[in-house]
Design a protein that fits this description.
Blueprint (H helix, E strand, L loop, with lengths): L3 E6 L4 H16 L7 E7 L5 H15 L8 H7 L2 E5 L5 H17 L6 E5 L6 H10 L9 E5 L7 H12 L7 E3 L7 H11 L13 E9 L8 H26 L8 H14 L5 H7 E7 L1 E3 L2 E3 L17 E7 L9 E7 L6 E8 L18 E7 L3 E9 L7 E9 L8 H10 L9 H19 L5 E4 L6 H8 L7
Helix pairs in contact: 1-2, 1-11, 5-6, 6-12, 8-9, 8-12, 9-12
């Protein structure tokens, strides 16, 4: 891996404290950082380098998966950290940034290889990219890369405008649009599970699969993200990126080879095959919900409209369930059911592959039918795979009963999503980052749904601590299915 300088915009923010800094520290602890490196954090907060290094140690102690190994190692890591008080809207600060980068590189004998990580408000993305170019910060003799957090625009038009600005300063292969779901162990494992196992790939089609269910549910409400969430809602916050990424990983064709562009090409083909919705389709195939007051156990929970900072007349959705189709040869006729929401009764992200029942059944349980074979990929918080089969019941001779084969990853020592993705960016592997045509096609699919919502698509209330609106159950029941 090349020696390099990591430039972190928003270096004192919540994402940096909870995810990015612990990820860098874990890479350092496991010997995955370059032989020579430095990190320059930028933030508006006035702070000395020594004070920031103490902030680093505290961040590692509180949020690193290797928190038990801290103190001495954390202070060794903190020595690589530099800090610059910086206002992203102030042109003169970019001149200071250029000088500071050159001074750090000279002092640490670093080539001018630079990663710029934008962990900041999305309305600053365009301006930062333009100013980095205008004031010569990206005119370095080595390589440069830009890691950018979601949201990448709020619709197709804004995404295209943002991409145009960023493209004036960085080439496409230098832009790493990060989606942390793609850094999760079991999401990356989908490829291997499918394409390295002969018991699955021959069955991975509409002849054997009844439906696919992708769920990402949260216990928490909007919390302190109300400013962003009121503009985004569950559709833009979760479906446009995370949920569609999971769908692409499940539905993609085998790539011609295991390299970056071949994998991304197959993911893009899935988006091109997604059935587009008009206004009548949205009403039929998408359920939109918003949490009301309720309880989780003995704890009362307020409704979305009673959350601090929320417009009491807001129609922002906190829950989405959808029935979508991938109209290609492999998946024709197979419904993909996706759902995501806040303030639900459990925290989990999983993918359930439900196989078709046998046409002739010799064995029946007490309800008159065999249970369905299910392959469940557990993404979060547990990571693993379970396979539900039917076997002979030892208590009842000749009666079939469900058995489960389970594999669970030991999550304690596994690299976290940000750790994997930052490591990939450092070594120039963009396989699990989002390419521009993925973003563009996702927005093309999302925008008609957003427009339908704006035109008064029904908003169904559901109690906090429940499984979501009852209309989401009906979405499957009409096809004879149920959520797993």
């Amino acid at each position: 891996m090349d020696n390099q300088l990591f430039v972190l915009f928003g270096g004192s923010g919540d994402l940096a404290k909870r995810k990015i800094i612990p990820a860098l520290y874990n890479l350092f602890l496991n010997g995955k950082m370059p032989e020579r490196f430095a990190v320059l954090s930028l933030s508006r907060k006035p702070m000395s380098r020594e004070s920031y290094q103490e902030f680093i140690v505290q961040s590692v102690q509180e949020f690193s998966r290797n928190a038990g190994d801290v103190v001495d190692k954390a202070r060794q890591f903190a020595k690589h950290m530099h800090y610059l008080s910086f206002d992203a809207r102030e042109p003169n600060d970019y001149r200071r940034l250029k000088t500071t980068l050159e001074d750090i590189e000279m002092a640490n004998h670093l080539p001018q290889n630079r990663i710029f990580y934008l962990s900041m408000a999305p309305d600053l993305f365009e301006q930062v990219a333009l100013y980095l170019k205008e004031y010569g910060v990206t005119q370095n003799s080595g390589w440069r890369r830009l890691i950018i957090e979601k949201p990448f625009g709020h619709d197709l038009a804004s995404a295209e405008a943002l991409n145009e600005r960023i493209s004036s300063a960085f080439q496409e292969h230098e832009v790493y649009r990060i989606d942390h779901y793609l850094g999760k162990e079991m999401v990356q494992n989908i490829e291997v599970l499918r394409f390295a196992n002969s018991i699955f790939e021959p069955l991975w089609n509409n002849r054997y699969i009844s439906n696919v269910q992708i769920t990402s549910s949260e216990l928490v409400g909007v919390e302190n993200r109300f400013g962003y969430y009121e503009q985004a809602g569950a559709l833009r916050d979760m479906v446009q990126n995370h949920m569609l990424q999971l769908l692409m990983m499940v539905a993609m064709e085998p790539p011609s080879r295991l390299n970056t562009e071949a994998v991304r090409d197959e993911k893009v083909k899935v988006l091109r095959s997604l059935r587009k919705f008009d206004s009548s389709d949205v009403t039929q195939y998408i359920v939109r919900g918003q949490y009301s007051s309720g309880e989780f156990g003995v704890h009362p929970l307020v409704g979305y409209l009673d959350e601090s900072g929320i417009d009491p007349h807001s129609t922002t959705e906190t829950f989405i369930a959808a029935k979508v189709f991938v109209d290609n040869f492999r998946w024709a006729g197979v419904p993909f059911f996706i759902r995501t929401g806040k303030r639900l009764n459990r925290k989990e992200t999983k993918i359930v592959i439900e196989f078709k029942n046998l046409p002739e059944r010799l064995y029946f349980n007490q309800n008159g039918k065999l249970l369905t074979n299910l392959l469940t990929i557990h993404v979060h918080p547990t990571e693993g795979i379970s396979l539900q089969l039917n076997g002979k019941s030892p208590e009842q001779d000749g009666v079939a009963s469900p058995i489960s084969i389970d594999f669970s990853q030991e999550t304690k020592d596994l690299p976290e999503a940000y750790e994997r993705l930052i490591f990939d960016a450092m070594r120039d592997d963009s396989t699990f980052f989002t390419r521009w045509d993925e973003v563009k096609l996702a927005w093309k699919w999302i925008d008609p749904i957003s427009q339908s919502f704006a035109n008064g698509h029904p908003l169904n209330l559901y109690k906090s601590g429940s499984s979501g609106p009852k209309e989401a159950e009906e979405l499957l029941r009409t096809d004879g299915h149920t959520w797993w």
